Amino acid sequence: MNKLHLNPIYADMPVTVFEHMSGLARSLGAINLGQGFPDSPPPAALTVAAIRAMETRSQQYPPSMGLPELRDAVAAFYGRTQGLALTRDAVVVTSGATEAVAAAILAVVGANDEVLLFSPAYDAYAPLVRRAGGVPVFVPLGPPHWSYDEVAIRAAITPRTRALILNDPLNPTGSVASADELAMLARVACEHDLVAICDEVWEAVRFDGRTHRSLLAEPGMGERTIKIGSAGKIFGATGWKVGWMVADAALAGVLAKAHQFLTFTTPPMLQWAAAEGLADPGITAALHADWSASRCVLVDGLAQAGFTVLESAATWFACIDLAASDITLDDTAFSERAVREAGVASIPLSALWEGEGGPTTIVRLCHCKPPAMLEDAVARLSQWRAGL
Ligand code: GLN
After folding, report:
1. pLDDT tens digit string along 362-372?
2. Residue 93: phi, psi to the nearest 5?
3. What domain count does the chain have?
4. Which of 33, 35, 202, 238 most suits a substitution to test ligand 1, by most atoms within 8 Å of the C-beta?
5. Which of 74, 138, 245, 378 could form a disulfide with 355 if both were Cys (CB 3.0 to 4.6 A apart)?
6. Which domain holds residue 348?
């Protein structure tokens, strides 16, 4: 039989590091602090709302742009939490934020267009840019603060640069761009006429007491920013796969064309439930309090056990610096061995780094888990490490 001709982007690609680590955790019965998801069910009010919607409302195709109730609720949520003045015309509902990223890239990137990415980067961005015919150009962020270097960014821009992809707050590091950095990125984007694809799924998962500020809100960015959000992250319901893109109405109309040939639409019962949840500040406040408490259990527990935890302000993740913790393994060896020998799954940061010179001694652990599970994980890691 002849070898099938498949696209090498996928044919030569391994499964994602998240799938790999979750698979190992499942088969070995390890505590899974790798892939980011809470262990508890989402707030009961959301489940009740989804069931009620299934029982009493349509289960047929909703409009491709999303149900008006959810588009209004997203606009109102950003008005209330981030001071943005939006209407439903600016909102396109997607089947999760990854689909939103794909739709945004397909709508913006053409053959040989260059797209600025920042390392470490979420694993979906570069393959999607390549599949769209574009060329990812990586600008590294440096530990421990993961700051954006204007000189390096300007040096990476060419006449073919069309867009940048900003993940803020940043997964895997949990860092947040400063006000000065956002202003700089906006200046650069306006000067070079770039579209900013902003993956802001962690906007509601912040622990520094500050209000999230989107690049969309910077001067000149309103017409060129695609702000991506996720109900899965806001409500701790990662399997719901309800997300959205927010953009100027003209841009949103084009994004909707890309979305209509990806998933076309998103399950209506989940859209109605997400709309109800966004309108209830009590739901997000209770989740945030739980996540904040479990975060302290992991971060304090690791520190007390002698691990060096990098500073972070957001996301469900904390990173350990292995070298600073006197552990001589590199991050991949640590993750591969810890899941088998200590029974704790983690994510090596180098799996999310393309290009030379990235850090190789940092691992990411997920903390939105029951406190007893986190305490057990710290005890296992600390005992295992003592025998290394
Ligand atoms: N966002 C999740 C994480 O960073 C992974 C999602 C996925 O597995 N595709 O852990």
Report:
1. 999 999 999 99
2. -80, 140
3. 2
4. 35
5. 138
6. 8-41+283-386
Q: Answer whether 89's CB lies under 8 Å from 249's CB.
A: yes
Please, are residues 198 and 225 in contact by the beta-carbon 8 Å criterion? yes
Q: Are residues 300 and 174 in the same domain?
A: no
Most informative mutation of 20, 39, 171 for ligand 1 (most atoms within 8 A of CB): 171
CA distance 81 to 168: 16
Do strands 195-199 and 161-167 pair parallel, antiparallel, or not at all (unpaired)? parallel
Q: Specify the ligand 1 atom closest to the Cα of 34.
A: 10
Atom number in ligand 1 closest to CA 19: 8
229 CA from centroid of ligand 1 (Å): 14
- How far does the centroid of ligand 1 lie from the alpha carbon of residue 200, in Å? 14
Amino acid at 48: V
Which CATH number do you get for residue 366? 3.90.1150.10
Residue with structure tokens 């099938």? 4
More confident position, 356 or 198: 198
Name the token pair of 77. 């949520």
Location of structure tokens 């707030």: 43
Q: pLDDT for 291-344, tens place per residue? A: 999 999 999 999 999 999 999 999 999 999 999 999 999 999 999 999 999 999
Q: Is the pLDDT of residue 193 over 80?
A: yes
d(CA 34, ligand 1 centre) in Å: 9
Claim to verify: residue 335 and residue 377 sit in the same structural domain: yes
